[in-house]
Structure prediction request, 113 residues.
Amino acid sequence: MKEIKAIIRPFKLDEIISELHKINGLPGLTISEVKGFGRTKAKGVADSFRDGLYSYVKKIKIELVVADSIVEKVVNKIRETAYTGNPGDGKIFIIDVCDTIRVSTNESGDKAI
Ligand SMILES: Nc1ncnc2c1ncn2[C@@H]1O[C@H](COP(=O)(O)OP(=O)(O)OP(=O)(O)O)[C@@H](O)[C@H]1O
Ligand SMILES: [Mg+2]
Prediction:
């Protein structure tokens, strides 16, 4: 199983979620409002703001843990939908997950996702 962590533009969220709902076997996901910066830092970028000493850009983080069999499908949907072709489109990280435990049933492994 893998965790897919995508940092995206906030205005793309609804479209991305609606594409993800079309995937069979999508178990769930978590969304957070985040701030950060990429390679170019946020200084001088139109939608950046100062917080303390540094500048940041507001983004949305989507986190999903999925079975290996649908990783490619999920990543492609996010990548295609998040794309505008401009700097700041975001990043997608793919991380190995050792195990998942479903608390209500004490199941673990793929069936717990
Ligand atoms: N290496 C990283 N590790 C963790 N978070 C990152 C990393 N790179 C980018 N981010 C997060 O993703 C957001 C969007 O990054 P962004 O798309 O601007 O990346 P970039 O490296 O500047 O590439 P681009 O040239 O496409 O803008 C950042 O504001 C930050 O929150
Ligand atoms: Mg950038």
Summary: Strands lie at 2-8, 30-36, 48-51, 54-66, 91-96, 101-102, 107-108. Residues 2-112 form a domain with the Alpha-Beta Plaits fold (CATH 3.30.70.120).
